[in-house]
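RECORD TYPE: protein structure
NAME: Endonuclease-8
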Amino acid sequence: MPEGPSIVILKEEVQQFSGQKVISASGTSAIDFSRLKDKTINAFKTWGKHFLICFDSFTIKIQLLMFGTYKINEQKIAKPRLSLVFDKGELNFYTCSVKILEGDINKHYDWSVDVMNDNWNPKKAQQTLEKMPNVMISDAILDQNIFAGVGNIIKNEVLYRCYVHPESIVGKIPSHEISQIIAECSTYSFEFLYWKKKSELKQHWKVYTKKICQRCKLPIRCKKTGVRKRNSFFCTNCQQEYR
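PREDICTED:
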């Protein structure tokens, strides 16, 4: 599933359609396409891994899931889940979830938990973590209600930067380490965005998919951790486990 920075890139790429009227809408999803015809797009927004197409009284929410893709001003052979045609150009989404959110989009989302939003509130994240002391940090970081937009790559790289073992328990991690993890979740997301735009993201991975720790020159371990069972890459020598 694309992480938050990739969805921000999508938002930037489709700005040519902001303020444009939908000439026709179609696709294989279950939404009412007739509602979209002749409607003007007010704005494109993102919340974590959600891509939002905002109209006057409703918003289309798109999640690209594991294998979702999109095409701007071109098509794939496969039928799109959602196709929007404008006077000049088109926007097509494939293998994704498409839903309509009614009313004011601000009533559906808490922007303060999105690590790339201007309203991101790290103090709120810290307060939420304090209420879940028995949760594994590798699960907590992937909780979209705390760190919207953070995915498995960011999780691994942040914990490696902070020298914290992914199986550490939140309540056992020193508060200054928790603060650093929270800050890095946002910082690394923006670095991810910068590197991905330059097509050099993988060059900057320090631990994700790696075999040898760059700091210790010892083997990196890969293990499915927490209740989410997502792959964690870590060094047992330099990443402290707090239990």
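COMMENT: The chain has two domains: 4-107, 111-234.
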